[in-house]
# Entry
Amino acid sequence: MKLFNVIFALVTGVFVAWLASDFVSAKYNVFLFIFFPVFSVFCLWLAEIVGRKIFIVRQMARFVLVGGFADIIDIKVYLLLFWLIPASLLIKSISFLIAVAIKYFGNKYWVFNNDAGHSIKEMSKFLAVTAIGLIINVASFYFITQIKTGLPMKIWTEISIIIAALVASVWNFLCYKLLVFKK
# Structure
């Protein structure tokens, strides 16, 4: 496995631990900051091995890392900027655009190995797919939250966010692979 891949997986693992530390007791922080980076590298290594036979597995693992990294950056940039300038919608727009830029470059160069130059057409396709992915995410979230489960609303809402993100991710991955960054 290339050094860049290991470093990116480690950094993403640290960022996941950073986000997870917001939700658990401080006494678990050391565990989180060891577990998630090691787990990220292990999963990427496993995906690289399986990806030798089934190439899409390698791309999917990298896609998950890029998306996870960008989403955590989105959250943390939002929180930092909101602390500095409490203008919620403006700040959320800025953090979202930073995450979209990370996803564009990460997917283009690392996930799909598309080193062709940038074009307006490619960027337009990327933004269109991402916008449709946003609509899919929000619509999925809405419909999933309407299901009555008997779970506390806070927990069901968090589960709904995760499921909606997974549904939208399938759309984004397939469209990025087949339409936006195809060679």
Notes: The mean pLDDT is 90. The radius of gyration is 17 Å. The CA atoms of residues 82 and 91 lie 6 Å apart.
